Amino acid sequence: MIEVYVQWQRDGGAYLATSRDVPGLIVEAETRDEVQRLVPEIARELIALDDRILRAGEQFAYRWQD
After folding, report:
1. Can you give the pLDDT at residue 24?
2. Potential cystine with 29: which of 1, 9, 34, 56 (Cβ 3.0-4.6 Å)?
């Protein structure tokens, strides 16, 4: 399972998603739905570029911080 930390950025009016499990994963989106759509797409691209990242069964656990 890949843990994704999502924080609401009040000053920017958007969510910011990052993950310790996928180095380089940074996603900014206006809605939670958009975060959940973009994170797997971008994470899969980063994983394909870096063999060192353990494939975690294509499951993502979101940790929302408002």
Report:
1. 93
2. 34
Domain count along the chain = 1
Average pLDDT for runs of 10 along the chain of length 66: 93 94 94 97 86 59 82
Q: Which CATH number belongs to the domain containing residue 6 in this structure?
A: 3.30.2390.10
The range of the structural domain enclosing residue 26 comes to 2-65
Residues whose CB falls within 8 Å of the CB of residue 11, separated by 6 or more in sequence, listed in order:
none
Rounded to two decimals, the pTM is 0.76
